[in-house]
Amino acid sequence: MLTFLVLTGCRPAAPAPAPAPTAGNATDVMFLQMSLAYADQGDQVAAVAEQRAEDPRVRALAARLRAEWRAESETMRHWLLRWQQPLTADPAEGAHAGHGDPHSLRAADLAELRGSRPADLDRTALTLLIGHLHNCVAVSRMESAGGGYPPARDLAAAITQTRQEEIRQMLQLVA
Fold first, then answer.
1. For residues 134 and 167, what is the distance between their CA atoms, to the nearest angstrom?
2. pLDDT per residue as tens digits for the range 22-44
3. Is the pLDDT of residue 122 over 90?
4. Which of 22, 60, 70, 155 has its Cβ near the most Cβ atoms within 10 Å?
5. Is 70 exceeded by the pLDDT of residue 118?
6. Under a CB-based contact definition with an 8 Å cutoff, are residues 133 and 163 in contact?
7. What gap in Å lies between CA 34 and CA 132, rounded to an integer?
8. How many CA atoms lie within 13 A of 19 on its CB side?
9. Angle ∠(148,151,152) on CA atoms, nearest 5
10. How far is CA 155 from the centre of its chain?
11. Is residue 166 over pLDDT 80?
């Protein structure tokens, strides 16, 4: 038999490449849970801006953000449910302890926005959204560095790029 293998040039087959992961690791879950929470918070600011901003560019940007967050959130929910993970982390379990939870929007921030005079609303909304998008980028970068699920890392990279461009646009609008 050995002579046959040597004479025919047959070699053992190379091992098959490892299959791509079908479930996420703890970083993926954290990224998705935090991103869902951020999308919900950001949507509250963007909804006010979309309805009440004086500058049509601010209204259009707010509408675009809301559409992006809806689409991204649908994908994120799908992955978490497929992995049988909760959509939100239990704060009592300290699920996100140790990663330096970036500042989330506070109820006082939203109250200030909702109570803004029309002349101040655009600047207040943009300022809140700029800080908020910086936090989204920080969480996406954590995913890019430690996530194990390639589609989630791809989503994080796309979010980082898109949010950075949106921040640049907002900075121009507040200048």
1. 8
2. 789 999 999 999 999 999 999 99
3. yes
4. 155
5. yes
6. yes
7. 12
8. 3
9. 60
10. 7
11. yes
Matching residue, tokens 């996100």: 96
CA 4 vs CA 133, 158, 167: distances in Å: 65, 53, 67
Contacts of 41 (CB under 8 A, 6+ apart): 104, 105, 132
Beta-carbon contacts of 56 under 8 Å, excluding residues fewer than 6 positions away, are: none
Is residue 42 within a helix (H) or strand (E), and if so which, with residue range?
Answer: helix 26-52
Domains of the chain, each with CATH number or no CATH: 23-87+103-174 (1.20.1260.10)
pLDDT at position 20 is 55
- Look at residues 14, 171, 161, 164 and name the one whose alpha carbon lies nearest to residue 153: 161
| Backbone φ and ψ of 104, nearest 5° | -100, 160
Rounded Cα distance between 123 and 173, Å, is 8
